[in-house]
Every structure is written in C-alpha cells, then in structure tokens.
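Repro:
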Amino acid sequence: VIRVDSLTPLAPRMPRPTTAHAGTIADKTIDELTHALRRGRYDAAPPSALAKRVAETLIQTVATAPRDASAEDIIARVREVGGALALVRREHLLVGNVARRVLKVIRDEASAGARGRGAEARAGSGERAGSGVVGGVSGGGERGGERGERGEREDGVDGHGRRSSDGGEAMKKLKRDVIETAHEVMEEMQSVSSNIAAQSGEFVVNGMVIMTISGAGGASGGLPEAFLRDAHKKRSDLRVVVAECAPRFDGHVMAKSLAERGVKDVNVICDSAVYAAMPSVKLVVLSARGVLADGTALVDSGAYNVALAAKAHAVPVIVLAGSYAISPKSINEEGFDSLFGLGSPASALEYGVHPDAVVVNPALEYVPPELISVFVTDHGAHVPGFIQVLLGEMYSPLDASLLAK
C-alpha cells in the first residue's frame, strides 16, 4: 500500500562496470540510457523506441571492445551491461530481452566463425599434404609438424594459448558480423507494429464486433489501435467497443483516434460494463507488456477483467505482443511477482486532495494462458504453448539469467 503523500521510491542504481572499459564512449551512452530509464522517459513511449535505444547501446558496446578481446570477453561485457540496464526499471522486460537477442547474435556469429576457420584449416592441411606427396616429399616429420602447428593457429591462438595476429583479424570480422546482424535485428524490431497489424485480416471478418482496452500511453496501447486501423481498411463495416480504462481514461483517447481515422462505429463503455457488453462481442483484442515463458501475459490493469468476461461468454481473446516482449522469465521465480503491481497514486488521486487517503492503484496484472486463444506477434500467430519454442529460437539458454555467473 502506498500513501498518496509518499514519494515514489528511487529505482535501484545501476552497478558500475568492473571491466576495463571505463571512460569510453560506450560507457557514456550506457549512463545516458540508465538516466533516461530512471527518469521514466520511456514509460509512455512506444516499445520499439526503447528496444532501438537498448540495441544501439549494446551494439556500441560490441564495437568499442578492445582488439585483443575474445568472444567470451564481449559476451561477458554485454551480459554485464544488459543485466544492469534490466535492473533499472524491471517492468520493462524488453530491456533484458533485447540484450538476450544481441547475445544470441554474438554466440551464433562466434560459432559460425569458429566453424569456418576450422574448415579452412582442415582444407589447407589437406592441400599441403597432397602437394607434399606429389612433389615426392613426405608430409610427415618436422615439416609436417610445422604445417599442423600452423593449421592449429588458424583459430587465432597458438600452441601456448597466446593470441596470434590472425586472432585480431578474426575478432575484427566477428565484430563486423555481429554489428551487421544486430542492425538487422534492430530494423526488425522497428517494424513490429506494422507486421502485427498486417495480420488483422486473418482474424477479423465483415460485421464483427471487437472489444479492446487501451494500454497505458504508448507503452502497449499502440498495438491494438494499429491492428484495428488495418482491420478497418480490410473490413470497413467492423464495430469497435473500447473500455475506458479509468482512472487514466486512455480508452477515450484511443476511441477518438480511431474515429478520426475513419472507423465509424466506435463506442466507449465504462470498465464495469464489460461483462454486460460481452454477449454481442465476437473478438477481444488485448496487448501485452510482456509474455512469460509459460504463456502468461503481463498486461495493463483492466485487461484481466476483459479476459475473464470473454472466457465466460466463449469469446476468443487474441493478445498482441512484439517479439521483444517475449521473456524467459516465469511468474514462479522468487520475488518476480513483487516487481509488478502498484503504480503511482498520482494517476488516481491528485497530490494533496486528501492527505490522509490511502490509494491502491494497480498498474499491471497477469492474464494466464488458459484465458488466451492466441498470441499475435511479428513472428506470426502462436498458441500460448508455443512460446517455449519461440524462446529457443530467439535466445540462448545460457542467457536466461543475465546476471548469473
């Protein structure tokens, strides 16, 4: 319980990096992002904006790594930075998710590079051995040993564990490949909203009545609106019912925006009327701030009420979520449930109006997988049970916990 006259607790301070990278441009960028997160500058911004900023910060971390750094050094540094950023505002699950995505890119590129160097070394050894036989000179003995040792050095490390000059070239190639692939991932994140909205025709039919609830500001409210606007282009006679989302009343803003963009039949209802209006509804559209490993959706307050009413009336519920919202976290993890819950009392009651009032303002809540028909992501539509498969494709199991040693 938070008293209305209490101050909002400060976010945990980001641990200072312990590796020898202090004073670099990357550290300055990390500090700027940490400050922006603490100040709440991304709380009402579209998720893609924060995802882009985090990805850019981590890409810069990779680019400014020392020339003699190994792939393991870069992974350790990115894990350190990503884990520390994820602690600043834990309700932004996508911060840790973007870090895990970048780490997966690094691991994949490092593995591909190692396989390529190994294949080149084996091919070179075979060619040299063949040329030795044809020339009448045996490939064995001292010269053969030298060739074998030289082949072993193709991976950038000599027989004594020292990094050779080839290792520097290999690291430059690794960094170049990682940055290029990470930029592709970042571009993919920027098109999440349009990719999800483009799938609206698969779920919406002519004359359908759709109920939705707006998210808090731009944090998750943009996806349902984009989805419905695209659906309106394909099915112009659809009807939309929007829950008003008291006390923020974001539903009014969303309904006005839809009406201004040509959706003619838009109705706003109070939150308590959701159950009564549900019998006429054919589809419920929600958006998620996060999707947990078991298919549970982390949603803005009020969405759970809509999902329960839909379940009671056998109305399908689709949840819109960008791939950056899918997290390997579980609600059963110790302390995880306490990270999400109450929001600032200021949005429910102005400061000083009732100094002795105790305000309980739920900000987020969970929708269990049994209330969700399908998740619509930029990777396609999937049932809640398929989330584990997506996690295996996007992240490495080694990065499930960013701060684990």
